Amino acid sequence: MDLSDRPWYDNEKKWVEMQPFLLSAGYKLRPRYDPNWFPSWKVPGAERTWQDDHLSSFKDNALDAIRIHDDIKVVLKRVETNSMELWIIKHLLRIHDPRNRTIPLFDVISVPPDGRYSLLVMPYTRRFDHPAFHCRAEFLEAMRQFLEGLQFMHDNNICHFDIAPQNLMMDESRVVPAGSHFYSQDTHIGVPGIFTWNHRCSVAPVNYYYIDFGLSKFYPQGRHAALNTGTLRTFKTIPELSLTVPYNPFKVDIFQLGLTMHKLIDTYPALKPFRSVADRMTSTDPNDRPEPFESLEELNSIAEQIPQQKLRAPIIEKTGTVSYLARSAMSMVRKDYPPARKYEDMGY
């Protein structure tokens, strides 16, 4: 299939090539990825207005699709069939444990012609911290699930090694019942306009998940004996990372989740009572960092000292944070109790 003269970006062309195969396998891509796609803005007489097909894929290895038999939105991720990532996800999902927060796997599709690559079919989810947290109880529920999930991984000798907000997800089905667009999750269908959602606490329980196990490793000797070398481009503040001096990678996981907690506390002043948990998780000395279950115990202990009414009272983002400023470009409406208030947002 010659796509050299067509309007797709290079990173999209592999999806266009796979579109007929995926359709036969029961998965429908957005119209933009149909080999016969004609841009809506090039239709004679059409006005240049925002349409779904304006939005390209921002990642060359992942794309949304519709599972045809039940009209469910899913995410397809392209990985090497023999990769550690695929092995780790399958391994974790075989373990039945209520603490397991690994993203579910609906299917694995072998990509023709040689099966070198496979597509992971996963539920459609959204980043865990958007829409904004409404109350302390919502923050607590998210952190509890992520700490439990991290302890589960570590108990099974899996180090994630890339814990960051973009790899921490939540099931949006109750929070955003109208759904959202994969490329522009602050819209329902990819077109700017009113975006509605429910507070997490009003539709609980909400499930949170870890995704992207591309850097993850299995240490059969156990987490206490594990050693690793190497640095991480996006985590320059983790003190022990070294190309030559071995360190325990499981302690890096704890630091990474602690960094995420710090970012949330910096964003929401009302979360300051939980700062001590994040401080211990990001201790300079890796040996001073607690196990995830110990951080969970400390988190719960602090929460028990806060009245329930206060845990469910609204909290607001600090003026001047990136998150707050991002919410200043597009009008948004929340549609549950308390009465809807307008917010402004421009994606992330």
Automatic annotation (TrEMBL):
Gene3D superfamilies: Transferase(Phosphotransferase) domain 1. Residues 1-348 form the Protein kinase domain. GO terms for molecular function: ATP binding; protein kinase activity. InterPro entries: Kinase-like_dom_sf, Prot_kinase_dom, Tyr_kinase_AS. Signal peptide: none annotated. Keywords: Kinase, Transferase. SUPFAM superfamilies: Protein kinase-like (PK-like). It comes from the Eukaryota. This is Kinase domain-containing protein. It comes from Favolaschia claudopus.
